[in-house]
Amino acid sequence: MIKFNKIKFLMSVFFALATPHIAIAGDVKILAVDLYKSTNSSWLVKVTLEHSDTGWDHYADTWQVVDAEGNVLGNRVLQHPHVQEQPFTRDLAGVKVPDGVSTIYIKAHDKVHGWTTNKLKVDLNKVIGKHLRVEAN
User: Fold this and answer.
1) Are 107 and 136 in contact (CB under 8 A)?
2) Could you tell me the pTM of the whole model?
3) Which CA distances in Å does 131 have to 44, 49, 68, 76?
4) How large a percentage of the chain has pLDDT more than 90?
């Protein structure tokens, strides 16, 4: 009996560790981000999200640009559900990225599940000209 429970436990741990990329049901999926450099430290950020919005009680309501420490560099509030418009893209102008910051993240929120644990990492060192597009894997 003890041996069976130990095997069952080890299998549960293995599957939990082997599938970290699977999003929790209902989480907002961050599909892509486009960044356009407007000045030395200011950016236009366009984020494409997908979420099973059902109405005013359950919809993707915010996305943010944050640095590696979690400091909010930009906050985009989504004013209404996008039930019939999936995926959808919304932008935010004037996002200031401090000098020396080369990695930022996009995170998203919905009214029921809160902040998604799957942030989209953006390496600003990969900007070509004044544009960078990053798509989720």
Assistant:
1) no
2) 0.77
3) 10, 19, 21, 20
4) 50
Q: Read off the pLDDT band of 34 (50, 70, 90).
A: very high
Distance CA 9, CA 5 (A): 6
- 128, 72, 17, 2 alpha-carbon torsion, rounded to 10°: 170
Q: What is the pLDDT of residues 55-75, one digit of tens each?
A: 788 778 889 999 999 999 999
Which domains occur in the chain, in start order?
A: 24-135 (2.60.40.150)
Question: How high is the pLDDT of residue 26?
Answer: 66
